[in-house]
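Problem 3 from the worked examples.
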Amino acid sequence: MDEKKLPSQAENFSEWYNQLVLRAELADYSPVRGCMVVRPYGWALWENIQKALDKRFKETGHVNAAFPLFIPQSFMTKEKEHVEGFSPELAVVTHGGGQLLEEPLVVRPTSETIIGTMYAKWVQSYRDLPILINQWANVVRWEMRTKLFLRTLEFYWQEGHTAHATEKEAEEHTMRMLNVYADFARNEAAVPVIPGQKSESEKFAGAKATYSIEAMMGDTKALQSGTSHFLGQNFANAFDIKFLDENNQLQYCWTTSFGVSTRFIGAIIMTHGDDQGLVLPPNLAPYQVVIVPIYRKEEEKSRVMEVVRQIEQGLKDYRVKVDDRDGLTPGYKFNDWELKGVPLRIEIGPKDIEKGSLALARRDIQGKEGKTFIPMEGYVQAVGDMLQKIQANLLAKATKFRDEHIYEVQDYASFRDVVENKGWAVGWWHDDAANEAQIKEDTRATLRVYAPAEGEGICFYSGKKTNKRAYFARSY
């Protein structure tokens, strides 16, 4: 570990983030510009995200499958809005095996087209519906400005694709998956997201409606952390996904798609991290507990390590790491695991063994306040309780921070002050794509999602009466 301190969040949040990702060994830059290498510690975090989401998908009836990385270029042109939205980001293969290909192949930017083609083969009758399929995959989008985890040429994600017999069923499923994401974000990642619908300008290319979960980062910028799309019959028409209904009438399916990517790792880093490094939620952390043995003399080592192994065995239901590296001081190890965000540290030395106690240090609370001593008797329950407290505290802290940085606005002057200096703005909004574009040009703030609204109000920008409210913020 590099001894040099991280830049503080206050002095340079962006550089704090970049250095933390590298020094906590989550990821590294690839020799290919704009790509990343996800290191084992980062991949372990992604695996825990996968497990938590995959469990939820299966509970809602989804099954996993795998579709090709290469998509015939002609498929991308079948849905007009879709191809226009993705054209600038496509990576295209023109040669294979030393030969010019008859038809260029697009490297998967998303899979609606290839999956739609397969659904058209598989669906004949209403009895074949619904189809609820998810795949864990990598995708490629040719981004010009990249940032580890947040925006890279190649990234990892899950993409769900479903086909339904009715519009109502498809719309209900779109909202169900949005709620699955919100539940995962809050209860596993301790990220208090705001779910809602995107504006026409911000929706997914080819969708009828796009919904997302929006998270506030530690610099108050917004991060779109997951999306659920109601695709209507656009892709069913383009790819001929039809079925015979109960009355023997031929109908087009209604389809949806939804996705969360490794970008969510960025959300966790920037929601909870501090000037010492990562602060990981226990439910997702690669290691929930690190045990640091402390001894000076060789004769102390065997006794300390004997107790350490007993404690480790007792905590076998948790993800535990024993840091028995030689030649490093306990202080160095403490700093290393603080940088890596391990939720709970247990320190065991000769004095602790004599007293029959364990020293516990919480990552979410700095200094003396975060350190407690517990009796060795009953330590398993105490550690479990402590991890639950840390998880709850992270969500409470992030929710408080979010709520303190959302401001109600009535006019454009106050709106500009908020989005340029303070955080997110929420207010009455009369939908107008031209006005939305002008606000983005003036302030770099975008409409994140619509907010719940009751009754009517006056739009902060146009002064028109409206029944809609919206959140605006600068974003990643």
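Problem 4, a separate protein:
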Amino acid sequence: MARTTVAKRLVFHIGGYDPITPPAGAQRRFVREMGRFQLTWSVKAFIDGLQSSADQTKWNVTTTGPNWQVETEYHLIRWDDVIETFKRRTIWSRIPLGILAFLDFVWAGALWGYLRTNWGYAVFFLYPFVMFGVLILAALLIGVFAFKISGSVPVTISGGFLGFAAVLAGPWRWLHLSDLFDDWIFSREYVRSGNSTIEQRLDRLAAELVTAANNSDTDEILVIGHSLGAVLAADLLDRALKLDAALGRSKIPVNFITIGSSILKIGLHRAATRFRATMERVARSPGIFWGDYQARIDLLNFYDCQPMAEMGLPKGAEAVVRLVEIGRMLEHAMYRRIRLQFFRLHCQFISGNDRRAVYDYFMLICGPVSAKSQTLAPDGAVSMFGDDGALIGGAAVLQRAAN
């Protein structure tokens, strides 16, 4: 019988396409948000150690309540170097590559898939390209205005170029269009040809995951993917399954949790046959439990969707989908302050909550109840804990789990 409680957990977390989070900054954010978790659940936490390599950044977390303690080994999988490589490209290469990515996703049916499954994601897809078109139109209008005033073609051309330069110097940066273009450029590359740096990294991490699953003394291995990181997390598990088809069945349970997932961002592209095959193998693996958390107000995820069915894959291997309300995780004043900040809302999936709720990132990765049990419980971990942070029936539950 699978454990319902854990005392030791190994976490592999893969974040989304976030160009502003180097490893040290990621740990600082983790510590800050962990503070909110401690207040909300009346628990204590201690974070120590910071080891960084090209593949991952690791630290240890010890969380305690009145009748429980959990040691978590947290692995943040790095791909900030890949993101930085895209960021270093000149704007003159990014613009045509971004437009090519836009046309590719439209031609391959992804835009129609977004409109069919979640119009909010279609808005997210269209936003950078529509805004870029508006900026180009503004530059052209500046040129037309210059011609009307001067009647000179050279002045008109100069005015148009100056208008375009002003667009790139200001709104292009203010609206984060460069990062959004890069996101879609990377996504097209992932679909069409893959990224060799990420593939080699995932191969090494898959071997580490398999070794841990067969030899470590941890109670649970949790692979968690946020946003586009959910795609890479599935890829990681598929590579691990190729090394050990019995992953998660023989010794240590393996749980796969996707949060604010962009799986359909890739999976609805007609050419993403390799990725859909990956998803089918992972979803069908009897040793891996898959839970998918979706939020209505988050435009950067797919809400109320069955990922496998939407990709045309067998429904029998579907994820356990949990629909969550971000407004119920936060104090009312905080929610009102960020409700129109779409990226901040998206990041609530990896932030601390102000209120105990069905979904809580830190409870999943640092709490004493397994991620599978939390995902299957109607109210998550809420009814499992007392006001003082004690695990209700903790001693008896922990004893049963140990037997």
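Solution to problem 4. The longest strand covers residues 56-65. The chain has two domains: 8-78+195-402, 90-189.
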